[in-house]
Automatic annotation (TrEMBL):
GO terms for molecular function: methyltransferase activity. The keyword Transit peptide does not apply. InterPro entries: Methyltransf_Zn-bd_dom_put, Methyltransf_Zn-bd_dom_put_sf, MeTrfase_14, SAM-dependent_MTases_sf. This is Class I SAM-dependent methyltransferase. Residues 247-403 form the C-methyltransferase domain. One of its GO terms (biological process) is methylation. It comes from the Bacteria. Residues 6-65 form the Methyltransferase putative zinc binding domain. The keyword ATP-binding does not apply. Transmembrane segments: none annotated. Keywords: Methyltransferase, Transferase.
Length: 408
């Protein structure tokens, strides 16, 4: 799916960064699959009209989201707690009808958030295109349809079940190339008093921290409040609240409604003003970002090569989708990182996308501590380092690359 024009404003995109050929972020594979491994040219552009930061080309959704999708949200205790709090905030927000409220979550994965509504008997529906995780959600009592969301599906749901009080999503909206079509569908789904509440990795944090690994095949967009205001404004909807989140190294929760349905909270003009000051509406900001990314690459490769020359054992910790961008862009393979440990069974015994670093069970790391562990899941640093105190006490050191390359 190539886009030389902005997917929202239909105006020309300015390319700002080229990552070269990249595999699928979640494309963990076996040796027999090497010959057929999928790669695509990954570069990002910016529209000064919509203020959307986006991939110039994205693989077809069916290639990325399928019946053997390699990510289950419930594997993270931190995220399970986060989504429980998200659900509770929705339930207590005052936005839901007092009688028979109806909530939909887009990209519900294995039901990690919707189960909090299901357990309270609240009418809900999950929409999840990846069949294997949708089945897991249904198994846990979360009513889920395995489909891609569209304006047509929205019309079908309204016809069959009526309009909804809240449309929720977490780390999903940024995956969808036809985001304008999704917003049109949401508008049809919502009651006059209905709200949209979704969160995604936040462009402001990505720029500030040089966390370029938030850019990979699934993330066709990285949003700012400015770009979301523009997008939903095309459908006569408006931002009514903005809530910064710690998840994924910096996310933003956007709350929107039909124009005029609710008062706009102070957080909206305050954060929009901050974004203007940060330059998230200007192309030159992204030129500086490119320079920071290029320097980060140089620093990381030099550090790993230096450790290799000194005979140090370096491994990766957590086989994340984000790490695929870093490893392939920097050309880091098994010559520099011996293996990546991970707790996700579906990834264990496979090799990392593109660079083919072995992915091993977490127990391998625990049983034989390396000299250095490159923390690929840097956004879960607090949770992981709390769990791995013995590793540090035994002399192990952490390498991180966000906000700068360093040894902890």
């Amino acid at each position: 799916m190539t886009a030389k024009l902005c997917r929202v404003s239909n105006t020309p995109l300015k390319q700002v960064l080229d990552f070269g050929k990249q595999p699928l972020g979640n494309g963990f594979l076996e040796k027999k699959d090497f010959a057929n491994e999928y790669f695509f040219p990954m570069s990002v552009g910016f529209s000064e009209v919509s203020m959307m930061f986006q991939l110039l080309e994205q693989p077809n959704p069916e290639i990325m989201f399928h019946d053997h999708y390699a990510f289950y949200s419930s594997t993270s205790g931190f995220m399970a707690n986060h989504f429980k709090q998200f659900a509770e905030e929705v339930i207590n927000s005052g936005y839901l009808s007092k009688t028979s409220p109806f909530v939909i979550e887009l990209g519900c994965n294995d039901g990690i958030m919707l189960k909090n509504f299901a357990s309270k008997g609240i009418q809900h529906l999950g929409i999840e295109p990846s069949l294997n995780v949708a089945k897991e959600a249904n198994k846990h009592g979360v009513r889920t349809r395995s489909e891609f969301f569209s304006e047509e599906l929205a019309e079908t749901i309204v016809k069959e079940e009526g309009q909804i009080d809240a449309f929720l999503a977490a780390n999903v909206m940024c995956h969808i190339p036809d985001i304008l079509g999704v917003v049109k569908g949401i508008k049809k789904l919502l009651k006059p008093t209905g709200v949209v509440m979704f969160e995604d990795p936040y462009l402001g944090d990505v720029i500030a921290k040089t966390s370029y690994d938030q850019i990979y095949d699934e993330h066709v967009f990285l949003f700012s409040a400015l770009s979301i205001k523009y997008l939903f404004g095309l459908c006569d909807m408006e931002l009514i609240d903005l809530q910064p989140q710690k998840t994924h190294g910096g996310s933003m929760r956007y709350v929107l409604a039909h124009k005029g349905a609710y008062p706009v909270k102070n957080s909206v003009p305050e954060i929009l003003a901050k974004e203007m000051a940060q330059g998230l509406d200007k192309l030159e900001t992204f030129d500086k970002f490119r320079e920071s990314v290029e320097q980060s690459k140089i620093d990381l490769v030099n550090l790993l090569k230096d450790l290799k020359a000194k005979g140090k054992k370096v491994v990766g910790y957590a086989a994340t989708s984000k790490s695929t961008t870093v490893l392939n862009y920097c050309g880091i393979g098994p010559d520099l990182i011996e293996y990546i440990c991970d707790t996700t069974p579906i990834k264990q015994g496979k090799l990392s996308p593109g660079m083919h670093i072995p992915v091993v069970p977490y127990e391998t790391f625990a049983a034989n501590s390396p000299d250095y562990a490159f923390l690929l899941a840097w956004n879960h640093a607090e949770e992981i380092m709390g769990k791995e105190k013995k590793y540090v006490e035994s002399g192990g050191k952490w390498i991180i690359h966000v906000p700068k390359v360093q040894v902890l």
